[in-house]
Structure to design on (375 residues):
């Protein structure tokens, strides 16, 4: 960079200034363009930091407002691109202009003589000679007409709604990505395994999902704490053709307290004596149904991952994936209770997949909620 600074300090640098733009329109995919040389739309080439040659396409561009001030508000440059619906759109993989909001744009400055093939080309495998790069984010589409579109740019740390520190604590709601720690996306370290070695699954409504093979007794003259029971109900099943059929089915419950005659009837409103649970299958054949109340939709455990059906269809040798037919069955409700039901679960005296909650042990993981203890 020292060489280029000495050159521009001369009365006649002997080479014109070239402005280049690198737009990351998708992860790992870039568009490289510049405004052209004296109305000549011939492509030019310049090297990246590793010396790899990049080709820059000439597109009519007008950009201004890249001033750097030592005080006051950060500049918000504007970039106007001509013929957005054809030439420029082809360079960004056919994306619509609205898809560019939030994308990163890098502005590079060099002299013509440092381009590939010119007199002072740095050479194959060598870093380019250029001024320090300026990185911006496309903040909004300021205007658009049949001739051009104008984008407003902002510094990455000067975007509306962005705060420093980047992560803020919201009372009563966890901000971590569920199970994201393994992918280096937050601090949620939950991986289904709870104290006692059993596997615990819950849905976004904080309902445990346990094996359908669990023994469910009818509610009689007495019930035993932590045992499982069933009651009869009627469900509205969605058929493959979209029609609705009322069918007889079961609701499933875990007794939270031992009771003898009279025994309270299980219900969602009685969370002192009962906890509703859902069930999952480990094998299935025939039609897998959905219901008007989606909480009743079939859950299937496949290779350690729980899936819930989204659309009634004939089940076959299909691959489970997030899409039109399946969604993850094990989801977090993002509440304090969602975290507690996982980390405070103990499975040593309950069926694998079922859980009893130990309110005295296992602190919630640090960072998810205000007041959680660091461990």
């Amino acid at each position: 960079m020292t060489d280029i600074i000495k050159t521009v300090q001369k009365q006649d640098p002997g080479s014109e200034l070239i402005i280049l733009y690198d737009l990351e329109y998708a992860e790992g995919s870039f568009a490289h363009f510049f405004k052209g040389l004296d109305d000549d739309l011939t492509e030019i080439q310049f090297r990246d930091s590793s010396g790899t040659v990049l080709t820059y396409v000439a597109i009519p561009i007008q950009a201004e407002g890249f001033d750097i001030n030592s005080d006051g508000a950060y500049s918000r440059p504007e970039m106007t691109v001509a013929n957005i619906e054809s030439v420029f759109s082809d360079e960004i993989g056919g994306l619509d202009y609205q898809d560019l909001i939030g994308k990163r744009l890098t502005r590079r400055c060099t002299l013509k003589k440092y381009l590939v093939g010119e007199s002072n080309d740095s050479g194959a495998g060598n870093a380019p000679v250029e001024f320090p790069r300026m990185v911006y984010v496309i903040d909004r589409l300021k205007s658009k007409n049949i001739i051009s579109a104008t984008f407003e740019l902002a510094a990455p740390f000067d975007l509306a709604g962005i705060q420093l520190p980047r992560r803020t604590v919201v009372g009563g709601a966890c901000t971590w990505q569920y199970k994201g720690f393994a992918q280096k996306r937050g601090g949620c370290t939950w991986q289904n395994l709870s104290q006692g070695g059993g596997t615990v699954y819950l849905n976004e409504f904080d309902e445990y999902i346990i094996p359908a093979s669990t023994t469910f007794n009818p509610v009689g003259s007495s019930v035993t704490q932590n045992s499982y029971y069933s009651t009869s109900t009627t469900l509205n099943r969605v058929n493959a053709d979209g029609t609705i059929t009322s069918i007889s089915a079961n609701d499933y419950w875990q007794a939270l307290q031992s009771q003898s005659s009279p025994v309270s009837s299980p219900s969602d409103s009685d969370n002192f004596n009962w906890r509703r649970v859902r069930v999952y299958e480990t094998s299935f054949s025939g039609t897998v149904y959905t219901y008007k109340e989606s909480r009743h939709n079939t859950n299937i455990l496949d290779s350690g991952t729980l899936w819930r059906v989204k659309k009634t269809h004939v089940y076959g040798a299909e691959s489970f994936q997030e899409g039109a037919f399946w969604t993850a069955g094990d989801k977090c409700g993002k509440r304090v209770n969602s975290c507690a039901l996982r980390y405070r679960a103990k499975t040593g005296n309950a069926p694998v997949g079922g859980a009893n909650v130990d309110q005295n042990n296992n602190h919630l993981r640090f960072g998810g909620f205000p007041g959680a203890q660091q461990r």
Observations:
- The two ends are 47 Å apart (CA to CA).
- Helices lie at 2-8, 84-91, 336-343.
